[in-house]
């Protein structure tokens, strides 16, 4: 446990959830160590949101923005927004998931035959054969681990690097997690639609779902300040440049929970079909192919049906979002600390799994 004093947990939501659920949320919150932590649960539309952290509350006037109202760097959780946008464009007939990437980048010379075989679906599902990050980012990442090379990496450079990158394997044959691959979806969608990625995401996904506290691009006002692994040293705000579509969205905890609830009840939103499309299992991956992956979510079994989740991290922040359709349960968690000692992802995942495995109804009564 950190030697820093933790501020008391506060509930910022409806208290109609059964006490057994709120107690579990409080217990999970106590395990996560970071200057700022927010843990939120939705169960059949009823919410609870709790905050804590080792950061001493400011004594200045006006007071700092409350933790649950800050906008956090959600890192790779951004990929779920980008792929939902892709699914929406496919439903609208703007493009097809199985279009070759090259069809939407017609002016780009691609000397490697496998590069011309890569489809948009391959990019979304990490099966394009591309490395995790472009090779020209690796030296800087090793020499300066807390300095972002992404901000100076524009779309023109991204496309030039892709053109000279030979896929590691034939597209569609193996799963290999790739920020590089998902980043390429943004210029492809922009070309297909004639609209830039931030505008597309805002108008086709964020606004229709009512996510007013979610923004793509550089750090917004009321942005949370991340910290390094020690939990004390501030980390610089992230600007992802051409990689905004894979890790550059900022969001509030409340918006993340709303986003998860949209996946639980797609029919209540304007994006019902795309929200269903991104939950359909697509492939098996991981060690001995024990993992299931949808277009964008990891898909794990529980005694009461599958749960879906994704996590994200930047240099100084971590995020988790997951949901379990059979019990209409969602868990969102954010923290301003990077590293295993924070224990955000495993704790939030454990809470979701525990709630998903429990047949307890939202009114606190176990079914007969």
Q: How do the strands of the widest beta sheet line up side by side?
A: 1-3-2-12-11-10-9-8-7
Identify low-pLDDT runs. Answer: 1-14
**CATH homology group:** DD-peptidase/beta-lactamase superfamily
The strand count comes to 12
- The helical percent reads 25-40%
What integer value in Å does the Rg equal? 20 Å
Report the average pLDDT across residues: 90
Shape-level CATH architecture: 3-Layer(aba) Sandwich
- Work out the strand percent: 15-25%
Morphology: globular
Structural class: alpha+beta
How would a textbook summarize the main sheet?
9 strands, antiparallel
Order of helices and strands: EHEEEHHHHHHHHEHEHHEEEEEEH
Reported by name, the CATH topology is Beta-lactamase
**Count of alpha/pi helices:** 13
Termini distance? 40 Å
How many domains would you count in the coordinates? 1
Description:
- The longest helix has 14 residues.
- This protein is α+β, with helices and mostly antiparallel strands and 368 residues long.
- The strands form two sheets. Strands 1-3-2-12-11-10-9-8-7 form a nine-stranded antiparallel beta sheet, with helices on both faces. It has a three-stranded antiparallel beta sheet with strand order 4-6-5.
What key phrases describe this protein's structure?
3-stranded antiparallel beta sheet; disordered N terminus; single chain; 368 residues; 12 strands; alpha+beta; globular; Beta-lactamase
State the gist of this model.
It is built from 13 helices and twelve strands. By secondary structure, it is α+β, with helices and mostly antiparallel strands.
